[in-house]
Fold each of these.
Amino acid sequence: MSSIYVAIVGLFGLAVGSFLNVAVSRVPAGRSVLRPRSACPRCATPIAARDNIPVVSWLLLGRRCRACRVPIPARYPLVEALTAILFAAEALRFGRSEVLPAALVFTAGLLALAACDAEHFLLPGGCSTRLSGSPPRACSPPRRPPAGGTGSA
Ligand SMILES: [Zn+2]
């Protein structure tokens, strides 16, 4: 498999990782992943395109919002980078086979669930049932941490 192909799939993973961050932030709250545009959760300043480049913008901005300087959690570049690395690894493993798109979708779903669980101690039912192929009626309520607990097993 050519290294250019692997790099392209990895770059696609960066973009998907950026979208996963939006989903992780909004889906547990029942908000749309499409609208409104991404904005700083503290000062509500919309995030400009130049500040929305996966991993790079986080580093160039000094890990802080351009407008109010509130720290941007490391979860954002971590999810983006991990998605890119896993996508590139899957491109290496599966090449240009018809298995690759399914593997990428499954990986993205698992990453979204893992990030939701790590940040919110919550596994959104919609994501879980779509990944497992179960019908929505079989959806169980989201897992929540015990009262006063840390959410760890
Ligand atoms: Zn801000």
Amino acid sequence: MLQTYIDTEYAPEKCFHCNGTGHVNGKICEVCGGQGDVLVAQPAIVCPLCNGSGIFDNGTCRVCGGSGWALL
Ligand SMILES: [Zn+2]
Ligand SMILES: [Zn+2]
């Protein structure tokens, strides 16, 4: 069994794409998979491109994938 040491902590944060509901327009949110939250490296940083809205240029933010959090 391969084990990789990971020193980064992850914690679930609210998915801004669906506003934490897990659904967008009656469909399961693609960003969080319907969970309503996404795993984000801690300390969580709001996506600098969309300012946490998950939307950029009227489309899904490419940096955060719509989650509203900086994932890297
Ligand atoms: Zn979502
Ligand atoms: Zn973003």
Amino acid sequence: MKFIRKPAEYTGYTLYHGEKSNEWRCPNKECGFSVSEEYICCPYCGQKIKFKEPPKVNMVTISIKTGENLNFKI
Ligand SMILES: [Zn+2]
């Protein structure tokens, strides 16, 4: 099998302690293993992966009384 670098599939992001971390998935349809941006290939199936800029998501910032900002993805 020939391994061509494929762009990882962006699945969204998580906010953890105020730090945003992008979630990616292996582009191999039969695999779909969760990968992170440091990976150059999928540890599960060996598919070479390239990462592009995550697609823009519309953000709404809602201020609540405590002064904290909560971001929601729509
Ligand atoms: Zn994979």
Amino acid sequence: MEEQHQKFEELDDALADWADLGEIIQESKDCSFQTIYSPIRAFFAADSSQWEKFGQLKSHKERIQFLTRMKVVQNSLVDIVPTSEKVHEEPKPTIERKRQRKEPPQLSHGANKMYPNLSKALEVKRTSAEGRHMIAKQKILPGEVLIVEQAQTTSLFRDFYPTHCANCFRRVEEEELVNCISCKTVKFCSETCLRNSWPVHKYECRILDYIDSKDIGHMATLAFRIVAAQEFSFIVENVEKFDEMEPSYEDGDYISAYKQESNMALRPSGDHLKRCVTALILARLVKVLYFHGFSILLELCNGIVH
Ligand SMILES: [Zn+2]
Ligand SMILES: [Zn+2]
């Protein structure tokens, strides 16, 4: 732990210079990605030598470090603060609805040894031309079930908040919905859905306007939720080892999500800039919410940019 502190001392210093706004609440502010991103983009557009330097950086860590030293980035990120009150307890639901849940189907041909959610009829391969991909190992008939997997995380489009459950996405009549009493924004179809969603929602509840803003993109929302769903201790203890850790490909395995194909080498500098700023926004949100007082920002950004 001590080593981590030293290693990222510079970054911590930069963060310490930003005002400690963790407990300041702002109820009506513009949380859109463009508001935060535009000044940074404009800065690079006006200074081609800085843009050139950014383009020459080879890793996420270098790019993130470069950005966090820039005043324009610090000024943009410092305004990110929670937009609703701190929540300590699970809100009491008002209506309990009993529903029959459908059981997921069984995999045809049994489970793949390495990828337990895949059928044995499939094989995962990797080539330089095609990257990671799947092929059929045997004849597959119409209607056979090849993948049955619990989603790592899910996200309901904001437009559907008033009409659909934020956990299971069922359309529900408005008078039947159970409200989150904290953010008063998302709704659930039942006590069960509220409870299932709570471990992650209790964090995002306070910063929903940032991660569900239209222009930040749904991948950013999903990335935040994957990190928010992890135990703090798991992230802190393993963050240095993420690259070496083997994914289990079982439901909820963080390393399986972390090691998704990123194709980073193929992306242009403009894309890197947007993703790095997104990562910094998300990392700032994570820090403000529940990693307060201990910065593992840089490593978190690495995970999120993936
Ligand atoms: Zn539901
Ligand atoms: Zn809420």
